[in-house]
Amino acid sequence: MHSNKELTENGPKATARIEAFSDGVFAIAITLLILELIQIIHVKGAEGLQALLLGHWESLLAFMLGFITILICWINHHLAFCYISKTDSHLMWVNGFVLLVVTFTPFPTAILAGYFERETNYALAFFGFNYFMMSVAAYSLCAYVYYKKLIADSSRGLFYRLTLLYGCAIVYTLIIFFICFVSVPVAIICYCLLFVVFAYPKEFAERLPARSSSSKA
Fold this sequence. Notes:
By secondary structure, this protein is an all-alpha fold. It has ten helices and two strands; from the N terminus they run βααααβαααααα.
């Protein structure tokens, strides 16, 4: 018998409140990105709309990157919860860590917009470090769900591959973080590849090797 602290909830409604709350946080975070664009309208000395837009292209680019970043995070989060069938008290905290990183995203996005021209390497590195934290958060969620068996047995193979994919992403994003200080173009190309992979996490995860039967939990 489980203690209250270790209580596991089952059934189709077990994750409903976690998903609803998480979707709300994602929606708020992605909405906050537009505030950076709204602020440029009030910049004094702007010589018309064309000058305003051309003079603040960094903000427009940062908004698109931030939007895509949070959208991809939501896609991966949604994928995970499509298979999670049980919850416990610790899962809420692990999921909370994911949401913490998501809500932090508008800040490095604003840094990228404000400092990309003046301190390109540092601005991109600061923005890119958020991808490292997202990889850690995604790995933590999938690893916890996998090892605590909060998914059906039929989904464990996929979750093992997802955990492996996010584990590789931790190393990959950390390497790109340091590349930002050496070559901005190379770092940007690497981040674009990252976008492609995690825009379709299931498809890429299924290409990874399965866990050997002798090492299965």
